Structure formats: structure tokens, C-alpha cells
Task: inverse folding
């Protein structure tokens, strides 16, 4: 499959670059936890790492898990998706989009540019563009998906060339910073014994000990500065830089939005990084104690590779396979249609009931009566005095406590208690006294999920799909 092909290429290219950085350049001096391993071929080193991890585990140490930006983002977006991807490790064929294909190739060319520069070889722009053309033809696969039918393979190829050409003209002769690592991969140790996966497109530094974490963006979406100032991915990388390069005074996070020939920079203070690390470790703690993995239907589901097997969408996919007659005859469709019809009627009836209540009150007041008679039934309209509590609820509760009546008038908050019991945030003795059993909530909504969870970062395949709609 084309997707596997791309992934293999990327992986091979990262491995090549990281091997180069660690062994050949002599400039990349970070202390990998694996740096004590004997000098071996990459495949042997990988096996050694696995054995090493297993030994740590067998010796009674905690199992080390590597968390990445997209792994955390997936958990925050949808726990069910997280379970499929990272716990059950369900494999699905992700189609390679032309945007992803072009993006990977542009990354590869920029990697070549800086890698060759480390060997004092400055490629001309034409050489890089030729390399891009050749690689494009060599690795092109007719299964690559072009979703936007108004554009052709050649349009995307020209886009990629324009990105490289603009970047070249903008930054030539590429000597403002010194490259330390390309497609750098490593693990940042976290306080809870886990690790955070690091992968930097280009890491560079200048003579003032300022380090630059560079990230190339090939999609047609320019981010706002506020969004970049809150970005977790590169900010976590800056923690790794500070850990590994003791001379580091400042870390600048640099995004190159190649479609706009625009560079955007963000920086984090020591306090912000400390807070970010705490927040990241908290999310990991939540992941590791999580026992419930419900689906979370949002607009992001449209980019989820598990949508077809997701319980929140599976029935819709089954229906897509049916003829119009079979569709109408589907038990689920029939029940939902009837349920929706009843729901609409119920809402209309409720609204009419409220209207009638008000009319009955007016009628009773005008007639000076408190009972109104119909054919079979009568309605009583009795006035009563309604008490409204002050808006400052907390203060009012304090007052009730002070006056010794709170216990008498307060009620248990069942939703809060439910949540505390399920999350085990309450004394076990309380949990023991309760019974937890499966029940269902039935709710009716429009078929299409609305709204987007802005706080959630997209995983790889979502980014990949998003590129095609940008
Ligand atoms: S389709 Fe939506 S709800 Fe289902 S697993 Fe994917 S993200 Fe979660």
C-alpha cells in the first residue's frame, strides 16, 4: 500500500538521519538513555533497546511507555479511539493523500539540503528541484489519493517545488544557525518513569547558545500566534533540548509555513515549561488510570480512521450498503424514526401544555375561581408562595450551615457522587455500600456531529486528512 510505503520511507529516512547525527557528525551530543549501548548497526541497536526495556521490566521496574504529542491528543479527543490505536493496536489501512506524499517529500529535500551542508556541500536550487522531481517520479504510486478533484498530481508537484524554491531564496546561504540534528528522534524521560517521544525536523543553534527547534509545515493553513504560543508539541521538545544541551540559554520554537513563505516563532518561560511538564504528566496519569474508554463524537470523527468500526458510526456504514428499500426496512431506522416522531410530538405537546397552564391561570383569576371543569376532568389552580434563593449560592449555603439547618435541607448530588464513585475519588467504604451496574441513556440528535474540540491536537492521520481539505 502507498501509505505503508510512505511510512517506510519516512522511517528509513529518520533512522538514517539519527544514525548520522549520533555517530558521524560529532556535533550531536545529547545523552540518549541508550548511548551506553555498544556501537552497533541500527537494527541490532533496536533489538538491544527492546531487550533492555524488557530487562528493566523483569527486574521489577515499571514498564516504560513512550508518549507522544499525537498519543496524548488522541486520548483527549476520544478515549475509544485511543483504546483502538494504542491498547488494542488495531491496524487499518490509511490511504496516503497527495498532500501527505508531497509534504513528506518536501521534508526529505530540506533534510538533504541541511545534511549536505554539514558536509560543506551547498546544493543549488536547481539541484534540489531536480532531486525533488526524481524522487517524486520514483516514489509515486497511483493509489495515492487526490481528494480535491479540481487539482491534479502536477499541481501538487508544482506546489512542492514552489515551497522548496521560496525557502531556498529566503534562507540562502543557510548559514545563520548551525544545524545540530535533522529528523532527530529521542525520548525525554518524565518524572513518572515514562518517556516523551521527541522528533524534530531540524535542530539548530547559534553562537549565543540559542537553540532553534524547527518544524516545516506544508499545509495551506497559517496558524495564529496565540495557537503557536500554546502548542504543546514543540514546547515539550524544548524541554528535551534544555535537558541535553547544558550551554542552552534560550530555546526558540520556529515554524516554517512553506505555503506562505512565512516563519513564526514562539518561546516559553521556565515557569511555562514547568507547568507544561506537570500538565503533560497529569494527562499521562489520567491515561494510565483510565478504565472507561467511551466514544466522543465530534466533527473530528470525519478524519478518524476507525470510524467504520466505531460503535457510534458502525450502523450508519451498514446502512450505506443497503438499497433504499432495505434502508427503510431496517429495524434500527424504523425505531429511530418512530422515536423521533414521538419526541417531536412530545415537545409540541409540552409547549402546548405550558401555554394552557398560563391560559388556565388567567382564566381562573378573571373568573375568581380555583377549579375549572372539563367533560371528564377538572383542573385546580391554587396559588402558592415560591421562594427564590440568592444568586450567591456558596454564601447562602454557608449561612444555612451556620444556622445549623444545612443537613436538613440539602440533597445528595447524584451526578457528582456517580462521577466520584466511578473515578474512585471517594473513600472505598462509600464505594462498597453502593452498587454499580450498566444502564443506558437514550438521546436524540442530528446525524452529523457538530462543533470541533479546539483544545485537542490532531493525530497523524487526522492531520493527513485535514491537509486534503485545506
Ligand atoms: S469515529 Fe469518532 S467517536 Fe469513533 S473512535 Fe473515531 S473519534 Fe472516536
Result:
Amino acid at each position: 500500500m502507498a501509505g505503508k510505503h510512505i511510512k517506510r520511507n519516512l522511517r528509513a529516512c529518520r533512522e538514517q538521519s539519527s544514525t548520522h547525527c549520533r555517530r558521524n557528525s560529532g556535533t550531536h551530543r545529547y545523552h540518549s538513555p541508550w548511548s551506553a549501548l555498544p556501537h552497533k548497526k541500527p537494527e541490532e541497536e533496536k533489538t538491544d533497546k527492546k531487550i533492555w526495556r524488557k530487562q528493566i521490566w523483569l527486574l521489577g521496574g515499571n514498564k516504560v511507555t513512550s508518549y507522544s504529542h499525537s498519543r496524548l491528543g488522541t486520548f483527549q479527543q476520544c478515549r475509544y479511539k485511543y483504546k483502538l490505536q494504542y491498547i488494542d493496536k488495531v491496524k487499518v489501512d490509511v490511504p496516503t493523500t497527495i498532500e501527505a506524499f508531497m509534504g513528506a517529500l518536501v521534508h526529505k529535500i530540506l533534510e538533504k539540503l541541511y545534511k549536505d551542508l554539514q558536509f560543506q556541500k551547498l546544493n543549488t536550487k536547481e539541484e534540489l528541484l531536480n532531486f525533488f522531481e526524481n524522487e517524486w517520479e520514483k516514489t509515486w504510486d497511483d493509489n495515492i489519493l487526490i481528494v480535491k478533484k479540481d487539482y491534479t498530481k502536477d499541481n501538487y508537484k508544482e506546489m512542492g517545488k514552489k515551497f522548496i524554491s521560496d525557502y531556498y531564496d529566503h534562507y540562502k546561504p543557510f548559514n545563520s544557525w548551525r544545524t545540530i540534528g535533522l529528523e532527530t528522534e529521542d525520548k525525554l524521560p518524565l518524572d513518572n518513569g515514562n518517556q516523551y517521544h521527541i522528533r524534530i525536523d531540524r535542530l539548530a543553534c547559534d553562537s549565543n547558545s540559542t537553540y532553534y527547534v524547527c518544524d516545516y509545515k506544508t499545509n495551506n493553513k497559517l496558524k495564529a500566534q496565540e495557537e503557536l504560543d500554546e502548542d504543546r508539541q514543540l514546547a515539550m521538545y524544548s524541554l528535551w533540548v534544555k535537558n541535553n544541551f547544558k550551554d542552552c540559554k534560550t530555546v526558540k520554537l520556529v515554524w516554517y509555513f512553506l505555503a506562505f513563505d512565512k516563519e513564526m516563532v514562539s518561546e516559553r518561560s521556565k515557569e511555562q515549561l514547568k507547568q507544561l511538564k506537570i500538565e503533560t504528566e497529569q494527562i499521562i496519569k489520567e491515561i494510565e488510570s483510565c478504565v472507561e474508554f467511551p466514544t466522543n463524537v465530534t466533527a473530528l470523527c470525519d478524519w478518524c480512521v476507525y470510524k467504520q468500526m466505531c460503535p457510534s458510526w458502525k450502523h450508519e456504514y451498514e446502512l450505506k450498503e443497503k438499497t433504499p428499500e432495505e434502508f427503510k426496512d431496517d429495524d434500527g431506522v424504523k425505531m429511530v424514526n418512530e422515536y423521533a416522531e414521538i419526541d417531536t410530538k412530545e415537545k409540541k405537546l409540552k409547549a402546548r401544555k405550558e401555554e394552557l397552564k398560563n391560559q388556565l391561570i388567567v382564566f381562573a383569576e378573571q373568573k375568581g375561581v380555583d377549579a375549572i371543569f372539563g367533560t371528564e376532568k377538572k383542573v385546580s389552580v391554587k396559588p402558592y408562595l415560591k421562594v427564590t434563593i440568592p444568586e450567591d449560592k456558596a454564601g447562602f449555603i454557608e449561612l444555612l450551615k451556620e444556622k445549623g439547618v444545612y443537613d436538613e435541607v440539602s440533597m445528595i448530588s447524584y451526578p457528582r457522587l456517580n462521577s466520584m464513585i466511578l473515578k474512585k475519588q471517594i473513600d472505598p467504604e462509600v464505594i462498597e455500600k453502593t452498587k454499580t451496574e450498566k444502564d443506558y441513556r437514550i438521546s436524540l440528535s442530528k446525524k452529523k456531529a457538530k462543533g470541533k474540540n479546539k483544545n485537542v491536537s490532531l493525530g497523524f492521520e487526522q492531520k493527513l486528512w485535514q491537509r486534503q481539505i485545506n
Q: What stands out?
A: Residues 324-380 form one domain. Residues 149 and 468 are 11 Å apart (CA to CA). The pocket of iron/sulfur cluster is lined by residues 78, 80-81, 295-297, 300-301, 304, 306-307, 310, 312-313 (CB under 6 Å). The first helix runs from residue 2 to 25.
